[in-house]
Every structure is written in structure tokens, then in C-alpha cells.
TrEMBL record:
Pfam family, any one: LPG_synthase_TM
Keyword Metal-binding carried by entry: no
Signal peptide span: none
Record field: transmembrane: 15-36, 48-72, 84-106, 126-149, 155-179, 200-222, 228-246
Membrane topology annotation: Multi-pass membrane protein
Stated name of the protein: Lysylphosphatidylglycerol synthase transmembrane domain-containing protein
Coiled-coil segments on the chain, per record: none
Compartments it resides in: Cell membrane
Keywords associated with the record: Cell membrane, Membrane, Transmembrane, Transmembrane helix
Length: 319
């Protein structure tokens, strides 16, 4: 009876996971199909080599985001193996294409629980990742834009007022106090291990590398659309980080859809004409969607192979 119940639960979890993936993929396709003519025109202006380089940079950036989250989760007491952590993070992140802000964390909580990670710890790592990405992204965008084209920062000066606030929030004592207060209000058990300064700095380091990789992916696209040189690379890093941060602040649309593109077109105005800026924003969106799908698929396959190897090893020992 217990075995049957366990098998039924496993089947339900598998079906729920498949349903989650199908819904996420549907919304991701909807984002692309809605602007297909403009996207196709933009891709027609890019070379295959540029698209390949841009995708490689996106994959590196997504891995940086995963390592940011994994560093925070490990510091809180749940170090996950690389393959298992990648599967939880990348598959869960597909939930950002579904309207609403909670789908990724719900998916990560459920998949993490199967690996022994308490739900509260998964939720804490997820919600800590957002301010780490936002704060590091604002720093990167401010420095890069000022270095490349100082006047381009002026229209967005109000955004950078958040940096001092986030700097205070990065202090582990502050974060631990806020987490403890929130868990008490939710009547949940407190976290077993507080966040440390070393863990926060490690997460920030990975986040910074991720932003640089994202900027390089945009720089490759911008190069084909008419703006090249070292200053264009710096500007692309700052422009992408700033537009992404504006998208992070918008939780009601799938993955900031539309908000990030509008912001990117505006930020790119000093280096590209409007048509080229729109093409850059839309092509960037599609390359990132493709990167999300590749990372989720590869991470899931790698984790499944690792699990199969462990089972084969265990059965060999039993024999």
C-alpha cells in the first residue's frame, strides 16, 4: 500500500512538472510569436557567427545567475551538487515566462524539497537572489555607462538612488534580521544557518560575472547593427544591465516582457537609430529565451544521467 502511494505521488509530481513546463513554454512562444515579423527582420541583419557568439555569452550569463543562487543556498545550509542545482534552478526559472512572480520560486521549492532542501530555505535563496542581481546590475550599469558615454546616465539617475539602499541590504546582519522577522510572521521555523558575509560576496561575484556576459551578448548584436569598438562594448554592458534591472522591477508581466525591451530601446538611443535599437532588443529577447530552454534541457538531461549512474552503481554493489 505504501509503495503504491509513493508511486502515485511520484507520478503526480512528474505530471505537475510536465504541465508546468508546457505552460511556461507556451507563454515563452507567445512572447516570440506576437512580434515575429519584427524579430525576423532583426535576425536578417545578423550573421550566424554573431548569433552563435551571442548565444554562448547568454549561456555563460545564465550559468552566472545559477551560481549566484547556488552560492546563497549553500551559505544558508543546503549545498547542492552542480548538476542537481542546475536542474532545480534552470527548470524553475522557466516559470518566469508565466504571468506572476511566484512561479519560479514555487517550482524551485518543490524540486528542491525532493533533494532535501527545506521550502523556507529555497524561498530565502530565491528572494535573496533578486536584490543581489538588482544591486550588482545597477552598479555595473552605472560604471559601464559612465565610462562609455557619461551623458547617457542622466535620464536614469533616479534608478541609481537604490544603490545605497541595496548596499545596506547586503549586510548579512540586516538580511538575517529581515528573514527572521518574515519567517516569524509566516509562523515558519527560523533558518538553521544565517547568511554570512563570505556567502554574500561569493554570490555578488558570480552576479557581476553574469552581468558582464549578458552585456557581451548584447555587444555582439549591437556590433552587427552598426555600433562597434571598445566603448560600444562597455555601453552594451551598461545598457543591458540597466534595462534588465528595470524589467526586474516589473513583476506583473512574464519575465519583464515588453518593459525590458522598451527600456533597452531607450537606453540604446545614443548609439543606434530607433529601428536598429528595436531589432537589438527583440533579437536579445529571443536569444535569451533560447538560452533558457537550452540550459533547462541540458541541466535536466545531465541530472537524469547522473541519477541513472548512481542507480546502476547501487545495483552493481547489491549484486
Amino acid at each position: 500500500m505504501t509503495a503504491r502511494a509513493g508511486s502515485g505521488t511520484s507520478t503526480l509530481r512528474r505530471l505537475a512538472r510536465v504541465g508546468f513546463l508546457l505552460v511556461a513554454l507556451g507563454f515563452g512562444a507567445w512572447v516570440v510569436v506576437g512580434q515575429w515579423d519584427e524579430i525576423r527582420a532583426g535576425f536578417a541583419r545578423l550573421s550566424w557567427a554573431s548569433l552563435a557568439l551571442s548565444l554562448v555569452a547568454v549561456l555563460a550569463a545564465l550559468c552566472g545567475g545559477m551560481m549566484t543562487w547556488r552560492a546563497l543556498l549553500a551559505d544558508l545550509g543546503s549545498p547542492l551538487p552542480l548538476r542537481a542545482g542546475a536542474r532545480v534552478f534552470f527548470v524553475g526559472q522557466l516559470g518566469k515566462y508565466i504571468p506572476g512572480s511566484l512561479w519560479p520560486v514555487i517550482a524551485q521549492m518543490e524540486m528542491g524539497r525532493e533533494l532535501g532542501v527545506p521550502r523556507s530555505r529555497s524561498a530565502a535563496a530565491f528572494f535573496l537572489t533578486l536584490p543581489v542581481q538588482l544591486g550588482s546590475g545597477l552598479v555595473v550599469s552605472g560604471v559601464a555607462l559612465l565610462a562609455a558615454l557619461p551623458g547617457s546616465v542622466a535620464p536614469y539617475a533616479w534608478v541609481f538612488l537604490l544603490i545605497p539602499v541595496l548596499a545596506v541590504a547586503f549586510e548579512p546582519r540586516v538580511i538575517n534580521a529581515v528573514l527572521g522577522f518574515g519567517l516569524r510572521k509566516l509562523r515558519r521555523e527560523p533558518l538553521e544557518r544565517p547568511l554570512t558575509r563570505r556567502g554574500m560576496l561569493t554570490a555578488l561575484g558570480w552576479a557581476l560575472l553574469g552581468w558582464i556576459a549578458y552585456g557581451l551578448h548584447l555587444a555582439v548584436i549591437v556590433h552587427d547593427l552598426g555600433s562597434s569598438g571598445f566603448s560600444a562594448v562597455l555601453f552594451s554592458i551598461g545598457a543591458f544591465a540597466l534595462s534588465w534591472c528595470l524589467g526586474i522591477m516589473t513583476f506583473v508581466v512574464p519575465a519583464g516582457a515588453g518593459v525590458r525591451e522598451v527600456a533597452m530601446v531607450a537606453v540604446l538611443a545614443p548609439v543606434l537609430d530607433q529601428g536598429s535599437a528595436i531589432a537589438a532588443a527583440l533579437c536579445s529577447r529571443v536569444v535569451i529565451i533560447l538560452g533558457d530552454l537550452l540550459c533547462a534541457g541540458l541541466a535536466g538531461l545531465a541530472a537524469r544521467r547522473a541519477e541513472g549512474s548512481r542507480k546502476d552503481h547501487a545495483s552493481g554493489k547489491a549484486v
